[in-house]
Amino acid sequence: MTNLMSRDELEAALRAIGAERYHSLHPFHKKLHGGELNKGQVQAWALNRYCYQAAIPRKDAALMARTTCRELRREWIHRIQDHDGDGIEEEGGIERWLALTTGLGIDPEIVISTKQALPATVHAVEEYVEYVKRGPMVQAVASSLTELFAPKIHEERISGMLENYDFIDESVMKYFRRRLNQAPRDANFALKYVLEHADTIDLQQKALEALTFKCNVLWAQLDALYFAYFEPGLIPPGAFRPQET
Amino acid sequence: MTNLMSRDELEAALRAIGAERYHSLHPFHKKLHGGELNKGQVQAWALNRYCYQAAIPRKDAALMARTTCRELRREWIHRIQDHDGDGIEEEGGIERWLALTTGLGIDPEIVISTKQALPATVHAVEEYVEYVKRGPMVQAVASSLTELFAPKIHEERISGMLENYDFIDESVMKYFRRRLNQAPRDANFALKYVLEHADTIDLQQKALEALTFKCNVLWAQLDALYFAYFEPGLIPPGAFRPQET
Q1: Residue at B19 is within a domain
Q2: Which of A8, B93, B139, B236 sees the fewest Cβ atoms within 10 Å?
Q3: What is the CATH number of the domain that holds B116?
Q4: pLDDT at residue number B2
Q5: CA-CA distance, B44 to A237, in Å (whole number)?
Q6: Is the CB of A77 less than 8 angstroms away from the CB of B77?
């Protein structure tokens, strides 16, 4: 029988999910950061991950569309701005991700079309967008809490990729540098919101489920990359086929 | 049999809908601007209209959640900011509307709860939020085009209400002053988008339908106000009952 947790207990339970399930633990990430992939495999990762990046503002707008709480919307809108930029002064995370894929030598039109992404990537990403439209708000908000664990993976990625790949330089890593500051700000707000609003056993369970769901969204993308581009290397019909190894 | 219209023809057809159906033509508005209402009736109008104002950011976020077009999102996000404000420097349209209802002597808690709004108001407003989630994007965007006709009504309202009611002063009319600039900017972008993207007979018809739908959303709110608070004056159970006449 589950009991109502204190805020500290709930936070610990949320963090425990990350410790067990965050995609930093996935073998594909270890290979990515450790320099064990060839350029084509890194391209495939960046092209697929673009789908996720590009969908985030839709996910965040869908979440905002549900709430009558102006304070929540006022805070959440920063996420859309961070990703979309304003087209004038601030390029935004999606554009920074395109700097990475272009730096890796992939035609941006192919990336933006998302037509060569793996089906499992698209499914995971679109299911995430739909997920935040359902269930209680605290569940939708809790699904963003993977950002609690993001700074560490970004740091590993920046140092690991710069060190291990001669086709990666500082100029294409600006997405991750920027997220080092943005993700903790967003995560802190969302964590506070969840700890405050998950005030029943049911809502606490839903918050934990949401974070598990989201870890799965990230994990499944790496499973699909591993399967298609590493081992056994079965690229689905129509998916991106690297020219470089 | 309908033919594909030129851009000019489509614009003219859209404007013709406003000329026939925009709520500036509604008898309740004429009475409101003309000083024919008592304070309780103006309160009822402001309290009900708050529901609409407060729902607009949800509607705009719902529209943004549908589009993969970053340029459209970058432009549309201003609408949410205009209404929600940032809680720091910019108070936003919803807060400016609350200045009006508070200036009219209604407890803001009652207004914000929307519990005393007319059922027809809530139905119209929530149906508008849902409408932009359906059909082609150009239809969703076209539903915002009532803003093409807004400046004129705002001007009439500012001068008419200041002149005709001793319980209205400049300080509570700031919502309308601000919209004199915001509405045309938004409407121009949306009109350009619709003229560009409604490039089939079917999409042109859907754009015209969307604007008609939206005129009806506004019109139905005034019908309900007229019926409940003017003639025959049948206030539904639970709805706001003015104390002042």
Answers
A1: yes
A2: A8
A3: 1.20.910.10
A4: 79
A5: 61
A6: yes
How far does the CA of residue A19 sit from the closest CA of chain B (Å)? 31
Distance CA A146, CA A150 (A): 7
Q: The tokens of B200 are what?
A: 């089939």
> How would you classify residue A114: left for phi > 0, otherwise alpha for psi between -120 and 50, otherwise beta?
left
Q: Which residue of A has its CA nearest to B58?
A: A65
Residue of B nearest to A55 (CA): B68
Q: List, in sequence order, the alpha helices (H) in chain B.
A: 7-21, 27-34, 39-64, 70-84, 93-103, 108-113, 119-131, 137-142, 150-164, 174-197, 201-229
Average pLDDT over residues A57-68: 98
Contact A61 B65 (CB under 8 A): yes
How far is the C-alpha of B65 from the C-alpha of B74, rounded, in Å?
A: 12
Q: Is residue A37 in a domain?
A: yes
Total number of domains constituting chain A: 1
Chain A residue with CA closest to B59: the answer is A65
Residues of B with Cβ-Cβ distance to A66 under 8 angstroms: 58
What are the pLDDT digits (tens) for B179-234? 888 888 899 999 999 999 999 999 999 999 999 999 999 999 999 999 999 999 99
Nearest residue to B135 via CA among B194, B74, B203 = B203
In a domain, B69, yes or no: yes
Closest CB to B64 among A61, A67, A85: A61
Return the structure tokens found at B167.
């319980």
A123-154 pLDDT, tens per residue?
999 999 999 999 999 999 999 999 999 998 99
Q: How far is B61 from B67, CA to CA, in rounded Å? A: 10
Q: What pTM did the predictor assign?
A: 0.92
Q: How far apart are the first and last CA of chain A?
A: 53
- Please judge whether B84 and A70 are an interchain contact, meaning their C-beta atoms are less than 8 angstroms apart: yes
Q: What is the mean pLDDT of residues B128-148?
A: 97
Question: Nearest Cα to B220, choosing from B146, B145, B87, B122?
Answer: B122
Domain of B185, in residue numbers: 7-229
CA nearest to A132 within chain B: B65
Average pLDDT over residues A81-85: 96
User: Is-contact B99 B85, C-beta < 8 A?
Assistant: no
Q: What is d(CA B65, CA A56) in angstroms, rounded to the nearest whole number?
A: 9
DSSP letter (8 states) at residue B143: T
Element (H, E) at A207: helix A201-229
The shortest CB-CB distance from A73 to any of B59, B71, B80 is to: B80
Tokens encoding B130: 């849902």
Q: List all residues 6 or more positions away from B106 whose beta carbon is below 8 Å from its beta carbon.
A: B43, B46, B47
Distance of CA A42 to the CA centre of its chain: 16
A7 assigned to some structural domain: no
CA–CA min distance B228, chain A (Å): 26
